[in-house]
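Researcher: Next entry in the queue.
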Amino acid sequence: MRRESPMKRGRELQANSVPRHRHLLNLIFMAAGLTCGVPLLLSAASGLATSTAAASSVSENGSGSNPSMTDALGVHFIDGSSSSLIIERNGKKYLVDLARHAIRETAGPEVSAQTHSGGSLAAAAASSGDTRLGAKIFMEKCSVCHGANGKGITAAGTPDFTSAQVQATLTEDAVINTIKHGKKGTLMPSWEGKLSENEIAAVGSFVKLLASTNASDQQIAASAARETAKVYTPADDYLYSLPTGRRLERHGLYVNFTHRFVFDPAFSGRARGAILAGLDGFSVASFGLRYGVTDKFSVSAYRSPSVIGRPVELMAAYNFLDEHDGNPLNASFRFSVDGQDNFSKNFTTNFEGIFSRTLSRRAQIYFVPALSLQARRLTVSSALELEPPDLPGINTFSLGVGAALDIRPTVAVIAEVIPTLVNGPELGIHRPAYAFGIQKRLWRHAFTLGFSNSPGTVVSQRAGTRAAFLGDPSADKGSGLFIGFDLMRQMY
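Model: Structure for this entry, 492 residues:
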């Protein structure tokens, strides 16, 4: 029998004393060092592989570690997970998932050691706040097409993310790639540049959690979805004429198009049904563009036709509170200038506050105080080529109140009233402007069909009524309501 030397036998005993998962950790540290550009971590991992003293720093059962070493290396173990850990370097935290061969930066509170039994990337990210962030973004950006519960919408042709069969065809990389770059031939847009890398990863993780077989994962996703679903998201920038103050997407471009059939034709019959409830009338059409500079700051330009003074409205808006961010209400401020005759005369300066509050996940109420300096009375131009008359400017204050109630997941009934509290009679306003109607949302579109007694849509004109516009004191009564519609389209 061949006899081994004492020195060789000692080396073998020493090697066998190293816990089995030591080599696995070495690979983790090395991968993290290469991926994140942390040479120190790679050096430490290499030193760990060759240092006998390091072996004694790991407990015999493999479940503990030397606190001084883990602190020095920035390593945080996740209790209950055998394939995930957190590495902290240079003030940033990276989630390492061995099962998926994935390393990514994570944000929010430190990953809890009490949450995960499956050890998946999505589950580990959940305790860091990514699931709540992903659910919030999903509800704001994705639920219109994919449904609030992720089950998809048949009319939009979107898949059911809660189906295990659907999820089996989707890797997390595929989900994130689709979110980033969109999907050709479908309504799925690209979110790269609009959402940060961390936000895209959070949405991808949330989508993967929707069909998780892990009960803990499902509970986390359901809880996050319920919290975000409590907040009502308006379908349009307007109820009818009253603004909702909804937050625009960063770099999003929106088109607003309105028609108000305020003029009755000369051939009207015995009842308004003879003229299709006003659709046979002649309309006042307006058109505008909105652009989200950031997700809080936006600018817009709006134009109404010659028959109502040919005004151009330039506006800047800032959203400083939003319920989606955990605030008790939504609040924004808008500053605008209206100039008639294509922004050449009769200027009005407007200051608005827009406050709204979710009453339930299906309803929201709005309050819009507005101060207009040097507003003009609504008048009909006798000829389109003529300039608007030089009427005196009057300072006014109005308080708009409105509400929206979803009667179906994509259909809401809306109502608004805009009383002028200061100097209304001086502008020929004897009854408040009001409107009601029904609103349909689909993907990036919103269509509102309603009845109103006000033809104006720019800030300085929307509180004016049909009575002032036509010079008929009875034209703003219930019998004088006319039909109209709004169309909103998000172009990008």
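Model: Residues 130-146 form the longest helix (17 residues).
Researcher: Noted, moving on.
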